[in-house]
Every structure is written in C-alpha cells, then in structure tokens.
Task: structure prediction
Amino acid sequence: MNATAKTDLKSPLEALQDRVRQQKDTVAMVQPLGGGTLREYTWGELDDETRRMASYLKSLNLPAGSNIALMSKNCAEWMMADWAIWMAGHVSVPLYPTLTAESVRQILEHSESKLLFVGKLDVWDEAKAGVPDGMPMLSFSLSPDDAKQAFPCWPDVIRDQAPLAEINQPSGKDLATIIYTSGTTGMPKGVMHDFSNLAMMGTKMPTIYSLSSSDRMISYLPLSHVAERAAVELAMLYVGMKIFFAESLDTFAEDIKRARPTLFFAVPRIWTKFYQKASDAVPPAKLAKLLKIPLLNRVIKKKVLSAMGLQDCRLALSGASALSEEVIVWFKALGLEILEVYGMTENMAWSHTTRQGDQKIGWVGKPNDGVECRIAENGEILVRSPGNMTGYFKQPDKTREDLTEDGWLHTGDVGEIDSEGRLRITGRVKEIFKTEKGKYVAPAPIEGRLVSHPGLDQACVMGVDLPQPVALLCLSPEEEANLQTDAARDQYVDGLKALLTRVNSEIDAHERLDALVVVPETWGVENNLLTPTLKLKRNELEKLYKDRVPGWARQRGVIWAR
Result:
C-alpha cells in the first residue's frame, strides 16, 4: 500500500464516531472497580466522557500537537485518555506501568511531554520521583489515593466539563503517538507513528481473522505496548468488539473466565504458565490417554479449556518471542491452535501472521498484506511494511541506521524464509555469541525449549568464550514455595537432569549445554534484569553473573547455586 492510499483510510477518531452511530447503546467495555464491582461502558458513554476530557485538555491552551504522557495499567480511562488527546489535537506518549523513576524521567524529559495522566499503578511511590518538577498531572479513577488527592481526577473533570463539540480531524500524516521501546539496552527509543499507520492497522488487521462486533477480548498486556494497542484498542474501534479489563494478577483467572474471550493474544510466558498449571493438575501423559477415549474426548477438552476461561476461544495468538513446540502441540490436542505472529514497535506490529490451517511450528507465518521481507547477507531480517514508523523521535541518525531511504526496516532479528514464504526467527543479531571453539550460538531457540519445563520462569543461555554454553534458570515464585524440603528439591533436580538430556539431544553439538544452573536471584523489571515486556536484559544478566559462569561451566550437569 502506498502512502497516498494510507492517508485515505478512516482515522481512529472517525472509526469511534462510526461505532457511536452504529452501536451507541451497546456495551463496549467492562471495567472491574475492585471488590467484585464492575462498570459497563456503552459506546455512547465512551464518546461522551472522551469528549469531556478533550474539552478539558483544550482549555489548558497547550501548544498544538503537544506530547501528553499516559502511565497506567490497562483500564477504560486509558483508552479514553488516548482518544481525548487526539480529539484535542495532541500526541499520546504511553509509558509502561512498571517503569522505575529513572526510566520515567528519561522518557518524560526526552519526549518533552507537557502533561501526564497517572492511573492504576503498583509502582507509583517509586515512579513519581522521576516526574520532572512542575509537570501538570491528571489522575484516573483507579489511580493511587495520593495521586487522586493531589491532581485533578477524571470523574471530577468530566462532571464539570461540557463535551467538545468540534473534535480534531487529523490528517493521515499527522503524528498520533510516540511509543517508547522497552529496550534491552540503553535509553528507550521513541517510535513515531502517524494516523495513517494506525488507520492502516485498524482497517487491515480485522480482515485476517474475520473479526466482528460479536467478538470478545480481555485486555491485560500493557496498552503501552504496540501489540495490545493494535490487537485490542484499534481492533475494538474498527470492528466494535467488546473489551473486558483484568483487575490484577491475583484476579486474572476469574477475570478471563468472566470475559470468555473469543480472541486471546498472549506472550509465550502466559501460554507456558497455562500449560504448567494444567500439567500440575493432569500430567500431559495422562491427558493424552484420556483424550484417546472417544466418550471422554470432548468433555475433557472443554473442561480443561474452561478452567482457563478459553472454552469459547476461536483464535489464539502468540507473539514477542518463540513459543515451545511442546506447548503448541499440547494445546492443539485440546483443539486450540496457537498461531505465532511477528511484528515490532517500529512497524506497528504489521509484519507476519500465521493463518489458520497454515501453521508450521517454529515459524511466524507469511507476510501480511503489503509487507515485503528479505534476508540480508548477515542473516538479518529486513521488512518493508505499510506500518513502518516515520522515524525515532529526535534521533535522525538512529532513524537512518534502522530505516533505509527506500523503506526497509532493519529488525535486528536473524532468520530464514521457506519456499512458501513463511518466516522463521533464529535469534537476534546482537545476541548471537561465539564459544571458544569459534562456533556461533543463537540463545533464544534453546531458551524456548527450556522454559516450558514446570516451575521455570525464565532461562538465559550464555557461552561467550566457553567451550560449550550454559543455561541459567530462574524459578517461578510458586515453584520456590514448593521446594522448601530437601526431598522436593532433589526430585526437581532429577527433572532438570532429564530436561538437560532431552534438550541436548534436540540441538546441534556445538549448541549443547554443559550445565543448567538454578540461580538464587529473581529476575524482574524492578531489579533491571527484565524489560517491561519481560524480555531478558542480557547485558545486565551477563554483568551480574560474569564471575560465576566459568566456574559453573566447569562443574557441568545440574547445579543448584542457592
């Protein structure tokens, strides 16, 4: 699709007005308020509150096209604030709701944001230290109490403000949002997307899987991330489906059962946790035997999927990193085909998709409409997409480095293309390392084989200048609680020994692991070992363990380093 054609598409704000005309009294969002209380929003109510907030933003007399930041967990007011920013003629800058004070300051200062919406947060006590002095703020209904007391609060603002009658009508080339990448190293980059990119995504994405107003989704992955923004917010605007919000991690199991999503998008960590929890209740071997009994097959499938809230799911997607074959095959036996997809913040997540009936495990599908893909001489995946960014905010040199003049985006991923045009990602250009034998190893595929093992939260394969790689393992909190006795720990170690043997039998000789090491530390966003999207910060992990890894490599086998 050329640039001219993109600008002719319906903008997100025009899509919102279509929804109001067609579905004004239809429930569009279901918001948990705590204590079992829910609020339902109709399309008409969403439009009214959004226009009132837009009117307030206009009253602040900010310069046209000002950047306005959003920091909150997912909620109805997050989306309405996004739309209100656009209605008032400004640019939205979403921040991950788990950022440290340092990261908050970096982004707010770099983006030159003029205002900050503060919402539902667990880390506000720390994060607020990063807010520049004097920055105006607005609070959401579910924001921390001190924020609601200190700043104008959403319910009060919309109560006192008349709806904005004449909303901004952006052109396709107008800047809509700056999405800061979670970044595994250094300062996050501000990816700029104009309204034509959002319109393209909202128009084209629903056609791949025949999305409609009868579909339901649960919004729980950060809306500050491009995937949730596209799959939930834009899809909702352009097809009118119903969105349920998750209240918290503690209530997620009940939240998803309430939503009974027909579409469910998750990162591998979520799919793996579903698999691990179900496997604790019914071991995979036992489940396989039960599914072979004709009279029980359908009943068992429904029971297992219902326990996850996925009994009505007709479309299951996985992205962000590779999902293990073991998990994919297990879900497929239950009748749920998990389709892997591929995209980046820099191309509005419009890159590759596995279509139903065309799954090839380990591959992320074929190019989406209008997307071209090729492999560079160094193995890097290059993508030319109608969703490609306009550039990095205030970083023209970095823009020229990652985006060629003729529109090819350097993804930083390494991969290959099969004869049918499907793409397989084999690693990251900067993550592939060389052992002392001079052999190159891509860690991500090996890590994907490891993390489906019960009780594992993360795995990080290292091996620079080692004879063979080693894998560091981080246990889940639940598994930590289960391994309080020597007997329980010994049993778990035996399972890891079997895992090491199996994984080594499945990979090439130069990739085989000398050791699996269960480390004492927890890897999280708060200690800067994971990004806000829960990807490994390899450089930080390598710094933390650099003095210990050589010794572990010499010990070999399974090492309980605790």
